[in-house]
Design goal:
Blueprint: H1 5-17, H2 20-27, H3 31-45, E1 50-52, E2 57-59, H4 61-88, E3 93-98, H5 105-114, E4 119-124, H6 132-135, E5 141-145, E6 153-161, E7 163-168, E8 178-179, H7 197-200, H8 221-229, E9 235-238, H9 239-244, E10 250-255, E11 261-268, H10 274-289, H11 294-299, H12 302-311, H13 316-322, H14 327-334, E12 369-370, E13 373-374
Helix pairs in contact: 1-2, 1-3, 1-4, 5-10
C-alpha cells in the first residue's frame, strides 16, 4: 500500500498542534477538508490515529508511532526534492554540518581536492538541530555530539574528548587544574541532569527525590555561558567547546571522573551516495592519522604537524627526524613553550593516554585534538565505505 505524503503532512500538522482548527490554519486549508483527509488516512492504514472529545485531541499509540516515522518521511522527501532541483539546475553541492568546537577544514579540503566539480559548504549546527539538518537534507553529513536520537541515521565513530565544568571567573573552582564530580555536588547544573548522570547521582539539590532547580531553555552555547557568567549555575561542556568560547568572565576546569563526550559522523541511512562514502572515509582517516599523543602535538610546530599529516603512515618521530628533529628536538621544544606554533588555544592537560571503549574505538581526546579544537589532518587515500 502506498502512503500519500500529503496526507502524512496533514497528519503531522494535527499531531503537532493537537488541534484541528489550528492545524488547518497552519496548512492554509479548511478544517472540514483536513478532517476528511485524516479520516481517509486512518482508513488506508486501518488504524485510529487520534482520540477526540469535546475537550481535547490526543494521539493514539498508533498515531504516536506514525508521528515519529512521518516526520522522517517528510524530511527525506523534502531533501530529495532539493537535491533533484540542485542537479537540474546544474549545481553540485555537498554540505557538512558540524558542532561548535570541531574543526572540519582538513577533511573538507581533501574532499574538495578529490571532487573539484563539487561545491562544498559547511553549516554550524547546535544541540537542537544537529540531527534534524541531516534528516531534512540540509546537510549531507553531520558531525554529531552524542547522546542524540540516532534512529534513521548511519554513524561513524570519530573521537571522544574530555569534558569540563564551566564556572564564573570568581568561582571557588576557577583556576584549578582539575576537579572531581563530587566537587560539583552542591552546584546548580544548568542542563538536563541526564546529560551528566555522574552529577545527577550525587547532586545535593536532587536529594530526597526533589526536582531539579529551574533549567532555562537554551538553544546556543552562548546563552548557557551568559547564565554561567551571571552566577545562575554551571554547565558541563566538551573541552573544545569551552575553549572555543573563551571569555574573561568565566573559567573552565577539567572534571576528571565523568564520561567523555563522543563525536561521530552521521548521514541518512536511506541515502546511497558515493560522495558520502568518500567523505566518511576521509573523515575517518584524517582523525585516525591525527592520533598523536597530546604532548607530542604540543612539542611540534604547526609546520611539522602538517608534514606529519601529509606522510600519513610515518611515525611522528620519523617525520621529525626527517626534518631535523625527533624525540630530542621535541624535548627541546618542551623547554621553550614560546616556540609552540599550533596557532590555537593551548590545553591545560597533555598527559591523556589512549583508551579503548567497549566497541574497541579509541577514547583518546588527543587523537584529534589540538588544544581547544579538534584537528584531524591526513591526505592518504582511504577505501570507500561500503553500503553508502
Amino acid at each position: 500500500m502506498d502512503v500519500d505524503l500529503r496526507k502524512v503532512r496533514y497528519f503531522v500538522a494535527v499531531a503537532e498542534h493537537l488541534n484541528f482548527g489550528r492545524a488547518a490554519q497552519a496548512l492554509h486549508i479548511a478544517q472540514p477538508v483536513l478532517s476528511r483527509q485524516i479520516r481517509a488516512l486512518e482508513q488506508e492504514l486501518k488504524v485510529q490515529l487520534f482520540e477526540r472529545d469535546k475537550r481535547a485531541t490526543r494521539l493514539t499509540p498508533a498515531g504516536q508511532a506514525l508521528l515519529e516515522d512521518g516526520r522522517g518521511l517528510l524530511a527525506a522527501a523534502d531533501a530529495a526534492r532539493r537535491r533533484i532541483a540542485d542537479v537540474a539546475a546544474g549545481e553540485r553541492v555537498f554540505t557538512v554540518g558540524f558542532m561548535p568546537g570541531l574543526i572540519v577544514t582538513p577533511a573538507v579540503s581533501e574532499f574538495s581536492r578529490r571532487h573539484p566539480e563539487v561545491t562544498v559548504e559547511v553549516l554550524r549546527t547546535d544541540w537542537i538541530n544537529q540531527t534534524a539538518v541531516v534528516h531534512d537534507g540540509t546537510v549531507d553529513v553531520g558531525y554529531l555530539r552524542l547522546p542524540v536520537d540516532l534512529r534513521g541515521l548511519t554513524t561513524e565513530p570519530l573521537l571522544s574528548e574530555q569534558r569540563v565544568a564551566v564556572v564564573p571567573a570568581g568561582h571557588r573552582l576557577a583556576g584549578k587544574d582539575s576537579v572531581l564530580v563530587a566537587d560539583l555536588a552542591a552546584e546548580h547544573l544548568l542542563q538536563d541532569p541526564e546529560a551528566v548522570p555522574e552529577w545527577r547521582d550525587i547532586a545535593v539539590e536532587l536529594r530526597d527525590g526533589r526536582p531539579p532547580g529551574r533549567i532555562p531553555f537554551f538553544r546556543t552555547v552562548e546563552e548557557k555561558l551568559e547564565h554561567v557568567a551571571a552566577g545562575h549555575g554551571i554547565v558541563v561542556l566538551p573541552l573544545s567547546t569551552a575553549t572555543f568560547y573563551t571569555r574573561a568572565d568565566i573559567s573552565h576546569v577539567l572534571v576528571g571522573d565523568i564520561a567523555p563526550n563522543q563525536v561521530c559522523l552521521a548521514w541518512d541511512s536511506q541515502r546511497r551516495s558515493p560522495r558520502i562514502g568518500d567523505y566518511v572515509a576521509i573523515a575517518r582517516t584524517v582523525c585516525s592519522a591525527a592520533a598523536v599523543p597530546a604532548a607530542r602535538l604540543l612539542a611540534c610546530p604547526l609546520t611539522r604537524l602538517l608534514a606529519a599529516a601529509q606522510v600519513g603512515a610515518e611515525e611522528p618521530d620519523e617525520v621529525l627526524a626527517r626534518q631535523g628533529g625527533g624525540a630530542d628536538a621535541a624535548e627541546e621544544e618542551d623547554q621553550h613553550p614560546d616556540r609552540v606554533e599550533v596557532g590555537l588555544d593551548q590545553p591545560e592537560h597533555a598527559d591523556h593516554q589512549p583508551e579503548q571503549d567497549d566497541q574497541g574505538h579509541r577514547a583518546d581526546v588527543a587523537a584529534a585534538h589540538v588544544p581547544g579544537r579538534h584537528f584531524c589532518e591526513n591526505v592518504a587515500v582511504p577505501p570507500r565505505v561500503p553500503g553508502v
